[in-house]
Structure formats: C-alpha cells, structure tokens
Amino acid sequence: MKTEFICENCGYVASKWYGRCPQCGEWNCFSERESEVAVSVKTKKSRPNNSATTEKPKSARIKDISFNEKERTGTGIGEFDRVLGGGIVAGSVVLLSGEPGIGKSTLLLQICSQLGNHGKVLYITGEESSAQIKLRCRRLGVDNDNVFILSENNIDSIITEINTIAPEVVIIDSIQTMYDDNYPSSQGSVTQVRQCALRLIGKAKEDGVSMLLVGHVNKEGAIAGPKVLEHMVDAVLYFEGDKQHAYRIVRAEKNRYGSTNEIGVFEMGEEGLTEIEKPSEMLLSQRPKGVPGNCPVCVVEGSRPIIAEVQCLVTPTVYPTPRRMSSGIDYNRTALLLAVLEKRLGMKFSSQDVYVNVAAGMRLIEPACDAACAMAMISTYKNIPIPDDLIVFGEIGLAGECRSVSNTGQRINEAVRLGFKRIALPYHSIKSIKAVEGVNIIPLRGVFDLLKLLDE
Ligand SMILES: Nc1ncnc2c1ncn2[C@@H]1O[C@H](COP(=O)(O)OP(=O)(O)OP(=O)(O)O)[C@@H](O)[C@H]1O
Ligand SMILES: [Mg+2]
Ligand SMILES: [Zn+2]
What we know:
The protein has 456 residues and is of the alpha/beta class. It has helices spanning 36-46, 78-84, 104-115, 130-140, 155-165, 190-207, 228-232, 279-284, 331-345, 370-382, 408-417, 447-455; strands spanning 3-7, 13-14, 30-34, 72-73, 88-89, 93-98, 121-125, 147-151, 169-173, 210-216, 235-240, 247-255, 263-269, 272-275, 294-301, 304-316, 324-327, 352-358, 390-392, 395-396, 402-403, 422-426, 440-444. The protein has three domains: 3-40, Rubrerythrin, domain 2; 69-276, P-loop containing nucleotide triphosphate hydrolases (Rossmann fold, 3-Layer(aba) Sandwich), CATH 3.40.50.300; 281-455, Ribosomal Protein S5, domain 2 (2-Layer Sandwich), CATH 3.30.230.10. 28% of the residues lie in helices and 26% in strands. A hairpin with a 2-residue loop joins strand 15 (294-301) and strand 16 (304-316). Helix 10 (370-382) crosses helix 12 (447-455). The chain is globular and about 75 Å long. The protein binds adenosine-5'-triphosphate, magnesium ion (MG) and zinc ion.
C-alpha cells in the first residue's frame, strides 16, 4: 500500500514524515494515511472501461436541464438574507465563521426561530448541552415547535437524525467538534473536519437539505482546519466586529449564489442580535463635534451606501522610528497617503506618530475613503477641526490627484439624507451629477483642495 503523510493542522500533504510542518510550522502533527493517488487509481480500475463503447451522452444542453424554482427561503432576518443574496438556497451549504464569542450561535438560534415558521429546523450542537441551549433560547426568546435541538458529536448519529426528522435546514455548531468513527485522527483535525464536511455536503446535495456550518477561526483569523473547507462549501461568511463594541458585521467571503459585496449589520444586546437597516445613523451618532482629525466618508457596501467616520491622530514621536498604527483601513494604504501628503503638501510626518482608526470597528476597503483619510490626517496635523456639515470622498493617486469613484449619485443621496450641506468629491465626477438644493458640491482636483477646505 502506498502511503503519504498529512499535517493534521493545515492539511499539508507530503511523501515523507516531518517533525515540523513546512507549511504551518506546527510540531508533531503528521499522520500517515493511504495515498489519495493510490485510492483514486484503485477506484478507477474497478470501473468498466468505456472508452470503446458508444453510450448515450450524459451531458445536456443548458436549456434542457430541468430544475425546480424552489430556490430561496428567506431567513426572516433581512440583514442575513442580504448577505446570502436573498435567502438560503435549497441544498446549499454555508460556512459561518468568526472569532470565539462573537455571536455565531446567537445569530443561528435566532435564524432557527424564524426558519421554524417555514419548516423543520435541526440545530446540532457539539459544544453545549441541550440544557445550555435551552437557557440561551429563553434569553433570546426563541420558542418554536419546529426547532429541534440535538447535542451530538458523532457524524453517523447526526446523519441518522437528519434522516429521521427530515428537516429543511440543518445547523451544525461547530464543524470542528464533529467526528467520524472510521478515522482514527482526533476531533478538530484536518482529516476529521474534512471528512465530516464531506458527509454533510453529500447529504445536503442528495436530499436538498440546506446546511449552515459554524467554523472556528484560528489564531491568525483564518478558518481553522483545512483551507479545502472553503472550496467545498457554497458560501463562506465571516462574522466580525469588535467585542468591545456592540456592532457586528456579517460579510461574504465567497458566495456561489450572490454577490460578495453586501454586508449585514447587527447590534448585540441582552436579547440577542438586532438588525440595523440604516447603519449610517448609528455610525455617526457618536461623532465628536469640533475636534480635529475626524472625517465622515460615504462608502458603498454592495447595494447600500454607508456613512462611516475616519479618525486620525498625529503626535510628535518620542521613538527613533515614528509609530504608525492603522485599524479599519489597510496599513499600506495609510502609509501611501502619508507619503503623498508629505511629498505634495510638505507636511512632516516623519517626526510624528500617526494613528488611524475607523469608528465603531468598521472596516473600510474602498479606495473612495482615501480622500477622507487624507482629510483627517491634514486636519489633525494642522490642528484645525473639519466642519460638521462637510463630507469627503474620492480616491487619491500617487501624484496627489483625486480620482473619480463609482456610485457617486448614491453617495450624495445618503450624505444629503443625513444632513450634510457640503460634499467634496472628485472633480471628474462633477459633470455627471444633478444639483441638490441647499447642498454645496465642492470639486476636488487633488490634495491641495483638501487643504483649502480647512482654510475656508
Ligand atoms: N446575558 C447576556 N447579555 C448580553 N449579551 C450576552 C449575554 N450572554 C452572552 N452575550 C453575548 O453573546 C456573546 C456570545 O455569543 P455566542 O455564544 O453566540 O458566540 P459564539 O460565536 O457562538 O461563541 P463560541 O465560538 O464560543 O461558540 C457574548 O460574547 C456576549 O457578547
Ligand atoms: Mg457558539
Ligand atoms: Zn501544517
């Protein structure tokens, strides 16, 4: 028998045994198994050799493929449906991942309660006892006769239970706590996680049951266990947020049935998670007035514009190399903006510590937030507050120029809705927009114009 060695931590496969995994650096994590190549050769041999036969073709034209339009079930939680692309697709497998204690089980229990109105839901926990779940359900007000709770780790018993109850939706909390008797490796190891996921995915595709799997993240923030898990499932959602803040965001990393741009916003409280349909108000509500270094920006997340607040603080450094800290905005992006301001506006950041932050634990990835970030930097450097009624967006290039961004109209509408009276945006976008009464649209050619905004 030909064998190979697999790292139980990250899934790295090698032809010889290692004491330390060359991929993830973990010690003593290799175990031996029969080579996958050998297994596939074996199974191939047992198949009939059909190279010479002229069977009917098994492929079909796209128009001839039948499907039933049963499609999506709304979860009753709009923000979650938004991320999924409009609800759970029958027979799909969704992986929900996030840091410990962020609220994964809470969210799924609340979803159970809503889904129970449409059909049977089976919630399987490998981490808590049924009594603990009951306690949480009481706190969250989850009480639906269609929701079944099972505390179980063995995948065979789980499949049996799915067959008995025949639910529409199955929730597995979490995939790392499940195990398959047929494999000797320990719970949570790559082999076990992969095997259990394969069994469940097989079941989902076969019976059309939808599955939501919880996946833990490791120290580095990636989904623990094999990366292959992400390839196997239909959608990967991340549940993120600062535990110090009440706000939680669900983001799609991958979605076979919808866009990955949408985010869902929630607030965590005593009674569980509540949806926040209009996040802008929430994000702006605690904005300090008359303090230098805070600049609002309108970003577009999927189909929805959101107003966030970029904050920057600059202080003279006491270190040989000045400190740079960035949270919520890419570190390299802030370094680039500092370099542009230093070069084009002659600001001396090299003797300053710079801290950049996005309020309420939001994460901004759009280039449109460049201008606001630069504006916040200039404001704190000059120690002049940004006017309360001013909002800024646009991408900043290396020459200090301001470049146009998508969805200008949507951003303006949201800013106007929230009462901003002055909107500074890329010069090149000005032609394409309609005038709004009582609102002053300010063209930005480059970082010079940002500086001028403060002097007015
Ligand atoms: N009594 C309570 N009142 C308010 N909030 C609570 C209460 N109990 C728990 N929480 C919130 O719920 C969070 C835990 O949620 P939950 O158990 O759903 O997280 P999880 O992501 O499933 O965690 P794990 O990875 O440990 O399974 C806590 O961090 C806390 O914010
Ligand atoms: Mg949990
Ligand atoms: Zn490894």
